[in-house]
Design brief:
459 residues, alpha/beta, TIM Barrel, 38% helix, binds iron/sulfur cluster
Length: 459
């Protein structure tokens, strides 16, 4: 259910004001000193002593970040052969920045409204993943809506079925729905085809998988790991500051619980990534505080392989439709977010540029602003496409080789944890993945299949 946002909600305690100067903050960044939140605010704003973005100062921040990138990871630009297999769009959490979801009640058999969304059974997931594995993917990424019928496993379902107030724990039995997603354990096991790397179960999904119980996050992740889960996406982070979460995602877990889930994943031996979703109602102080929380988490766990800045896509979201925001972040803000992530997160080696969010041209530019990873092939991508972004769908290895070499960098296929890398020789086509369990170097899609999947340019 959408909730109105008042001006009072947006009168934040945290504002971009500091006692630091832009020049001091930049000097610290260039020297490789650990930055403070105030330093980050100065760099993100290009100085709180001036209104708006100062383009010359911005270029100096980007240059410092690009140098740091070269010093930390060199000239390689990595990407992974992956598939997105999202299980369901059914969700009733009501985050105001999201239009991936479809109201969960429209999925019920008794609903008079035909749902615009989808739910896959474990068997359907297995078929989709098996096809992609045979084509050569290394990783399947799966992030879904919080379907009310989803339970962790059979034991969890029994507990939820016996709950005196199922509505209070957001549970409805699978019989109510046209299609049941099964359990999380069933879905993970189904996707774990031939040992393909399964990247799934965000902290928010892990919360949903323990609702109505006193199980710890460790217990939940242990059971999922036994089913085949390999790593956990650090999404659902949005902005890790309560006063922002209360506006954009009041139904979601809070900052402390998100951190607790991430530490639990680390404790049971599951690698993680971390994200920020920025450019909506928050300001630069919130972005800087978020970076600090991620850096502190990494100091405690050493478990975060990459940081992924996600630029808010505003079209078709309640925040935009209710006039709370009129757009997403500007290109200047995007570039500064990447650069300051690189400079601030001195304990995370990899910063990702998302072509799904930025598009090819700007995505490549981000690789000169501090980023070194160019995400994955994404055989299927529903989330950004449904939110109105125009860049979803698929990038082939040939696309990657062409784009990365066009900026003078080295294309490298990687594993999810970055431990395994394969440098690709741009003079030796055809280009296809080699790291997946069934990868043999042939392209993921034939030219004809690619043409069939192509979106109209203005989709
Ligand atoms: S962001 Fe996730 S939890 Fe929030 S409404 Fe969208 S699908 Fe549901």
């Amino acid at each position: 259910m959408d909730r109105a946002v008042s001006e009072a909600d947006l009168a934040f305690d945290h504002v971009p004001e500091t006692d630091q100067s832009f020049e001091n903050a930049l000097a610290k960044a260039r020297d490789g000193d650990r930055l403070t939140v105030d330093d980050a605010i100065e760099l993100l704003t290009t100085g709180t002593d001036r209104e708006g973005i100062d383009r010359r100062r911005k270029e100096r921040v980007l240059e410092a970040a690009d140098r740091r990138r070269a010093a930390v990871v060199g000239e390689e630009v990595t990407f992974v052969a992956n598939l997105n297999n999202n299980v369901t769009t059914a969700c009733n959490v009501g985050c105001l920045f999201c239009n991936f979801k479809d109201a969960a009640h429209t999925f019920e058999e008794a609903s008079e409204v035909e749902t615009a969304g989808f739910t896959k059974t474990p068997e359907q997931s297995r078929e989709i993943v098996a096809d992609a594995v045979s084509r050569g993917i290394y990783e399947v990424t799966s992030v879904s809506g919080l379907h009310p019928a989803f339970a962790l496993d059979d034991e969890h379902r029994e507990i939820l079925e016996a709950h005196p107030e199922p509505k209070a724990v957001n549970y409805k039995p699978p019989e109510r729905y046209e299609t049941s997603p099964g359990t999380y354990v069933d879905q993970i096991a189904a996707m774990s085809v031939d040992g393909v790397h399964v990247h799934s179960m965000t902290p928010e999904e892990a919360y949903h998988a323990r609702r109505g119980t006193d199980w710890s996050y460790e217990e939940v992740f242990r059971r999922l790991k036994d089913a085949g889960l390999d790593t956990v996406p650090g999404t659902a982070a949005e902005i890790l500051v309560e006063e922002v979460r209360e506006v954009i995602c009041p139904g979601k877990i809070g900052t402390e619980e998100w951190l607790e889930a991430m530490e639990a994943a680390a404790d049971v031996g599951l690698g993680t990534t971390a994200t920020i979703m920025y450019g909506h109602v928050e300001n630069e102080a919130h972005r800087a505080l978020h970076l600090k929380r991620v850096r502190d988490l990494q100091d405690r766990t050493g478990n975060v392989t990459e940081f992924v800045p996600l630029s808010f896509v505003h079209q078709n979201t309640p925040l935009y439709e209710h006039d709370v925001v009129s757009s997403g972040p500007s290109t200047d803000e995007d570039e500064l977010m990447i650069a300051v992530s690189r400079l601030f997160l001195d304990n995370v080696d990899h910063v990702q540029s998302s072509w799904v969010k930025y598009g090819d041209e700007q995505g490549l530019k981000m690789l000169t602003c501090g980023a070194d990873d160019y995400m994955g092939t994404i055989l299927s991508e529903e989330i950004t496409k449904r939110a109105g972004g125009g860049y979803g769908e698929f990038r082939s290895f040939a696309d990657y080789v062409e784009m990365i070499t066009s900026i003078g960098r080295v294309p490298v296929e990687r594993s999810t944890d970055y431990e395994t890398r394969r440098v690709i020789d741009p003079d030796d086509p055809p280009f296809g993945p080699e790291l997946g369990p069934k990868a043999d170097g042939t392209p993921l899609l034939t030219d004809d299949e690619r043409a069939d999947r192509a979106l109209p340019a203005d989709d």
